[in-house]
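so the lab meeting is tmrw and i was supposed to have these ready like two days ago... anyway. pasting both below. for each one the top line is the aa sequence and the line under it is the structure tokens. i havent really looked at them closely yet so no promises
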Amino acid sequence: MQKGRQLKPHIGIYGRRNYGKSSFINSITGQDVAIVSEVAGTTTDPVKKSYEITGFGPVVLIDTAGLDDEGEIGQKRIKKTLDTLSIVDLAILIITQNTFDDFEKKLIKEFEKWDLPFIVVYNKIDAFPPKTDFIKQTEEFLKKKLFLFSTVLKNNIDELLALIKESIPESAYRTPALVGDLIQAGDMVMLITPIDVEAPEGRLILPQVQVIRDVLDHDGVCIVLKEREVDAFLRHTKIKPALAITDSQIFLKANAMIPDDIPLTGFSVLFARYKGPFDEYLKGTPKISDLKDGDRVLLLESCSHHVSCDDIGRVKIPRWISQFTGKKLEFDVIAGLSLLSRPINDYALVIQCGGCMITRKQLFNRLKPAIDAGIPVTNYGMTIAYIQGVYHRAIKPFVKNIEHDYL
């Protein structure tokens, strides 16, 4: 399941079949948004629903299939349900009937594997009142309180919503500034934005828009121009920007045009720090030089888009890396949040796009298997900067002791 353009905290609802997960969603939204039936297994594939939590903001609720499903089709449903763990920011485990055993414990281990905060809700207290001993034993295992609830009575819905708001990690809805910590109020920031075949008709791409907004939010001034206007602008205005940001594909041109005393980086490098495991990228990028004949490289795109004849991920980066290394390499491209077709250990390097369409949590989880396996990871912009010989300049605004630490 892909999160796509919905940059809102995602909340997954998990539990066994017929435990009231869909009714639970209907209760907290106040709408019949999930199909409810007495037949176990009514919910098949995960279903998403946007909802506004009063006093907090919009979230996306994900109704999942029961994780005790049976048969071959049931196992496929379970797999799809477990796949959602990599994109959710908060898990809600529904239990009832005084039952909490190996099934629930295994699911909680999965939550912990993904470093996923969770709430355990004992549902249907009107039909299956929880026993005192059961509550005590379960809370001792969880080291947290059960939340007792009834989708029929709904008498503590406000307390439930308050608990959800409290449990959603801040990182799910608040990310660091893109450039705010690099500039002062009144500083001018130059954005070099080529208009080429991949540029959308009549508008700027999302990373450029987000940077403009971040500069304005921090009381800076944006200068937005195409690459062929840079020389004339600097020469005629005598303005010295506090920071220049370029499209990664013209790093070499920008490096030549922007004086050395003006910090220069790329949009994709900004997003590498903004959303990605930047320290891992810093360690992984120089490993491009260590690639050998026959190595396989994985490129991860966070969204699906129209593929042009000179596509950055499918064409340009593979060509540039092959030319830079002089090696015969294999390249795989995975778009969106689709599952890998090969084991992660088949790859010598993983290259992630800027990730403007997904959350920080999603991006970290996307790269976690590679990082855990010790496979170098990097980012589109950092890769381009490295193979074009401007890597140090591109990361210098963010890194101290650059010559010593990142040769």
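ok protien two:
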Amino acid sequence: MTAKHIMLVDDDDDIREIMRLILQSEGYETVDAADGARALELLEHGERPPLILLDMMMPVLSGAEFLRRVKSNAALADIPIVVMSGDTAARTTAQSLGAAGCLAKPVELDTLLEYAHRYADEH
């Protein structure tokens, strides 16, 4: 996979599809996971995206727990993770867990692409 790929982790199929289409229109490839457990599995099996876009409210393994696990794993801790949430407290939680940023849902297109360019284009 090209270096310009982004992992999308969200339990909402429609949100993942819309974000995938937006990112692909800008030249990015995506790898998707419907929950934190699947995303963690992909990372443990060698997936190394230059950016992860992470929903906070998911079944199986929440975004906060996924973030904790990734940041506590020395082999994965340097991957930038940008949290996406409709919860206004998510920004504080994201910062305290070491996230690279926070996108409020509904996600602003310009802000999404700013994060994509900042993290995925530099690799």
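from a quick look at the 2nd one: Residues 1-25+35-42+62-69 form one domain. The chain has a mean pLDDT of 91. will dig more after coffe
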